[in-house]
Amino acid sequence: MEALTLHRFHFAFTITYHYIFPQLTMGLALLIFVLKTMALRGDAVANQAVRFWAKIFGVTFVMGVITGIPMEFQFGTNWSRFSEAAGGVIGQTLAMEGVFAFFLESAFLYLLLYGERRLGQRGHWVAALLVFIGTWLSGFFIVCTNAWMQHPVGYEITPDGVIKLASLSALFTNPWAFPQYLHVMVGTTITASFVMAAIGAFYVLRGEHVATARRFLSLAVVVGLIASVLAAAPTGDIQAGRVYKLQPVTFAAMEGHFHTEDGAGMVLIGQPNVPEMHLDNPVILPNMLSFLTHQRWDARVIGLSDYNRDLWPDNIELLYYSYHVMAGLGTFFIGIMMLGAFFLWRRTLHEQRWLLWILMLALPFPFIANTAGWMTAELGRQPWLIYGLMRTADGHSTNVSGGNALFTLIGFMGLYVMVSALYFFLTTRIIAHGPESDPTGHEFEIAGGEPEKVGA
């Protein structure tokens, strides 16, 4: 296997594993803040939920740090030519993510976990707010980095081939960045909502911690429905429009659109047959692709065959399936959360055991959908490392052999198996213990105040 292929797979493995954790913490930061706001308004049950979910947030945050550090080093070890050429640009946002966002969320995470009694409820609410801001700010800087690689702006190239940043404001106002950021953050909220709903459904099915579980289950269903709809429209639709405008060959490949058509249809199901340039067994919505891209039913959509093959994505089949897995699962998410919201409105959600089972078993699928979404973005950019500026083959480290890359990849896989086992052990212990106490019918103390009696 070539060194370049191993370098690519090495980075793909580490970043895919790493993103399991930030997508959960970024979404949980929002939900914890909402729960803490409810607690500040006198909801003692929500306060119990905050304490419980802050523990899971803390463990997941640590895992994100552990798995994120090696990824940063890979820019220098596996992708040294890319770092040498573009480090002056991507180093800006990565440094800001570390200095501003990471330290903000890590500092106030301690206060969120251990400072409730000293801070009081208002101070604890501020800690939850700052953790939320820091977490989402971190996501913004990372997305700006990726957006520049997808659509480079605000740069200049020196005579020796080094890419330098000419405008920091252009980097942050990249037309690719804001739609991508919104879509990414909505995706993290979907993940956190489904995880929260799954654990709430688990408790309700077992008859444990029912009052607290019903509180955060209800919140997860409401937020999950809103986020699932927003993922499709407008954020998903706007992002697809950006891809069509700025990376048209990527758009044609991910849609399986091989030939230019007037009134092009949108493929729901089909298998791309690249050698013969068509889809096998397609199920198509007539004219829909033209309408979504141009708001006209008869508009022309350029097909893959009209572009030079040197510009085609490296793996069209995987790109196509990644995109359709993301979109297909997103549709199911809307349906599941609509059912949950309907029965929540009827005040019978906790009685629908079949739906609680669906919510519980749906837990892994948002992780799959988010991973498929990032695969769509990264596979679609190929064969470019920086779109239109640097090809992937020109960015990897030539002095790191394929054998060295394979050796470290196997080592990383073994290490991540161990840390995965540790994470599973810690989170299952937290879930097994549950919220500190079920406040229904019991007295408990809200930090900074007097004991309260909470009724059913």
Structural features:
456 residues; mainly alpha; two-stranded antiparallel ribbon; 14 helices; 10 strands; globular; disordered C terminus
Report the total helices: 14
Number of domains: 1
How confident overall, as mean pLDDT?
Answer: 92
Strand order within the widest beta sheet:
1-2
User: What is the number of beta strands?
Assistant: 10
Round the Cα radius of gyration to an integer and report it: 24 Å
Order of helices and strands: HHHHEEHHHHHEEEHEHHHEEHEE
Shape: globular
- Taking pLDDT < 50 over at least 5 consecutive residues as the criterion, the unreliable ranges are 438-456
The proportion of residues forming helix, as a percent range, comes to: 55-70%
Distance between termini?
63 Å
Largest sheet: 2 strands, antiparallel
Q: Which structural class best describes the helix and strand composition? A: mainly alpha
The percentage of residues in β strands lies in 5-15%
Describe this structure in words.
- With 456 residues, the chain is mainly alpha-helical.
- The protein is 69% helix and 8% strand.
- The protein has one domain (24-236, 319-453).
- A two-stranded antiparallel sheet has the order 1-2.
- Residues 438-456 have low confidence and may be disordered.
